[in-house]
Amino acid sequence: MATETNPLVDDELVDFLLYSVLDAEALCELPAYQQHSKETFDMFIDSVRRFARQDLLPTYKPMDENAPTFRNGRVHTHPALPALYDTMVELGVLTATRPESAGGQRIPLLVHTLASAYLMAANLGAYGYIGLTLGAAHLIEAFGSDELKRRFMSKMYDGEWTGTMALTEPHAGSSLGDITTTAKPTSEGYYLIKGSKIFISGADHGVKDNVVNLTLARIEGAPAGTKGISLFAIPRLREEDGQLVSNDVTVAGLIHKIGWKGLPSLAIEFGDEGDCRGWLVGEPHQGLRYMFQMMNEARIMVGVNAFATASAAYYESLGYALERKQGRELGARGGDMVPIVRHSDVRRMLLRQKAIVEGSLALLATVSRYGDVAEHGVSEDARERAGLLLDLLTPVAKTFPAERGFEANALAIQIHGGYGYTSEYLPEAYLRDQKLNSLHEGTSGIQSMDLLGRKVMAKGGAPLRALADEIHATIGRAREAGCDPELCTALEQAVATVGAVTMELGQRGMAGDADGMLGHSWDYLDMFSTLVIGWQWLSMAASAKTAPLSEKRRRATEIATQYWIRTEVPRIDVLANLCRTNERSYIDAQPEWF
Ligand SMILES: Cc1cc2nc3c(=O)[nH]c(=O)nc-3n(C[C@H](O)[C@H](O)[C@H](O)COP(=O)(O)OP(=O)(O)OC[C@H]3O[C@@H](n4cnc5c(N)ncnc54)[C@H](O)[C@@H]3O)c2cc1C
User: Is-catalytic flag, 441?
Assistant: First the structure.
């Protein structure tokens, strides 16, 4: 497939998820979304996907090949970026989910997730400026004063300034409780900030003149650890007498990273000259809590990045497999070479990619819909239940697409044979891009501990019970729709296994055996994700029985469901056993033995 014809994301899958599997139109009955309809959803997605394919995708390779540079204290980015950014703002991508009061259209997160997937698949780095600005402005919208909204948020939502999330410090990445950037109060209402941050994406660029860094720092005298961290808005340029002047935020260096080349990540210094002003967002010492409240959104966005990168690569490899001729079919004597898609081992790789990619999108869409109901559901019960499921599934929605997406990206290279190992073809670039998604917004290891140590154990196990109910309801629906009963039974047994293991591990935790509970958190996440993706596939298979689908999509849904439940779900027993027996090889392996 020539890159220009790469669809990036399958339109029929998006429609199927929206209107058949997840009934997006039912969301329009909620007061928050009453102004919307299938027509407004389709219009938004159509305009975004057209821009992604026609305008954004052609800029991906040039940006990958021309990384930003750092000269005379400023970062220089690809010249196509300012116009691309402005068009995305005009399309409403930046503020689509925000209420009218913030200049948005209050589109459900479900619709936004599916639309933004096209943009990310077309050019992850270019979309990154939007994602970061939205995240930063949303923090001020949620927790900032009217004055901060006027001063910073409006300019970000208007598309005039961009934003960043400035958390990481050279010595404190996963361990954010250890950050040391300081904030000294002044009598003028602002704080004087001093400290170093690293990896801050979009902190300087040529897209817009000004950038507002939503930064974690410690007010002088604050308690140690996570309880003493506050959130500040720190612009690169501040307004004085109607002019924009330097705010003593300097770029210390450009990170030479292996992917996401359209978006620079930087080491930055606040307050080298003692004159960096930051404005407190919300209450003192609540910074990490605020950040975590926004984390679901950010982590879902990383999951969508991961899906998108794997989806674009899947279509590259599908196109290649249809065109590349090599060898003959098994048992054939002589004759012409056949396209490699005729070899079942190549179809193994394509089907595995498809199961990972489309299973990921189904999960991300499901979780986004829970996000919509958690925020805007009519009853307290509906909001609470959706909130439980959203919290529980967020680490899975972030990590599964990132980890298995990386595997899918590697398969896209494998299908290209030796050509896949060259920069003439795109899969190697997508593989480089993909790797970031298991690192930022909390590494996969940290997510696994969050899932097992916190999420499944929350509220006496209520989230897990809610999930089990959802999966059982899907199994019931699948049986009624006439799906393969063996697949339904296999998933039913898997739910029981995961429930029993969770109970055992929870009891170990309550008895104070932290190693016994969390030693295999990675295997637990793998087991849990395998079940969740099985649930997503069975849900699609059940809906496919009656949805208005092409024959191709219907058959592909059936075969991918069968593939996942027959080949992946059996691994749940092996993983459950590792968690249960607490197999001790890496728990007992001592640092000095390596
Ligand atoms: C390209 C890029 C862009 C980024 N953009 C931003 C940005 O815009 N803003 C921002 O603030 N940050 C950003 N980051 C930083 C990113 O969020 C951190 O890299 C990430 O949080 C991990 O921190 P670290 O790199 O210090 O790794 P570390 O925390 O040192 O982790 C190293 C390894 O140890 C493991 N580990 C750490 N602690 C534990 C533990 N307690 N238990 C078990 N395992 C553990 C981790 O899982 C990991 O495998 C970016 C990073 C990159 C690479």
Answer: yes
- pLDDT at residue number 3: 59
* Paired tokens of 500: 């029993």
What pLDDT, in 10s, does the model give residues 157-195? 999 999 999 999 999 999 999 999 999 999 999 999 999
How far, in Å, are 161, 203, 260, 423, 551 from residue 65 at the CA level? 26, 21, 11, 10, 40
Amino acid at 247: N
Please write down the long-range contacts of 318-321, taking CB distance under 8 Å and 24 or more positions apart: 318/1, 318/350, 319/1, 319/2, 319/5, 319/6, 320/1, 320/415, 320/416, 320/419, 320/425, 321/346, 321/350, 321/415
Distance 169 CA to ligand 1 centre (A): 10
CATH number of 3-157: 1.10.540.10
Q: Residues 271, 275, 277, CA angle at the centre, nearest 5°? A: 85
**Span 443-478, pLDDT tens digits:** 999 999 999 999 999 999 999 999 999 999 999 999
CA torsion angle for 145, 151, 153, 156 (degrees, to 10)?
-170
Mean per-residue pLDDT, 420-434: 98
CA of 537 to the centre of ligand 1 (A): 32
Label residue 297 by pLDDT band (50, 70, 90).
confident
Q: Which of 141, 169, 358, 441 is catalytic?
A: 441
Neighbours of 540 (CB within 10 A): 26
The CATH architecture one would assign to domain 162-284 is Beta Barrel (2.40)
Do residues 538 and 475 touch, judged by C-beta distance below 8 A? yes
* Residue pLDDT, tens place only, 484-505: 999 999 999 999 999 999 999 9
Residue with tokens 């935020």: 249
Cα–Cα distance for residue pair 458/464, rounded to 1 Å: 9
Give the position, in ligand 1's atom list, of the atom nearest the Cα of 167: 11
| Residue 84 in tokens | 């691309």
Contacts (Cβ under 8 Å, ≥6 apart) of 525: 395, 396, 399, 444, 447, 448, 451, 452
Burial class (CB in 10 A: 0-12, 13-18, 19+), 574: exposed
Probe target for ligand 1 pocket from 124, 133, 174, with the most ligand atoms within 8 Å of CB: 174
Testing ligand 1's pocket by substitution, the residue of 178, 443, 520 carrying the most ligand atoms inside 8 A of its CB is: 443
Low-confidence winner among 428-437, 453-462, 549-558 (lowest mean pLDDT): 453-462
Among 215, 143, 225, which Cα is nearest to 181's? 215
Overall average pLDDT of the 1-16 stretch: 86
In three-state secondary structure terms, 117 is helix
Point out which residues pair with 254 in neighbouring strands: 266
Contacts (Cβ under 8 Å, ≥6 apart) of 406: 310, 431, 434, 435, 437, 438
For residue range 75-125, what is the model confidence (pLDDT) as tens digits?
999 999 999 999 999 999 999 999 998 889 999 999 999 999 999 999 999
pLDDT at 296 over 90: no
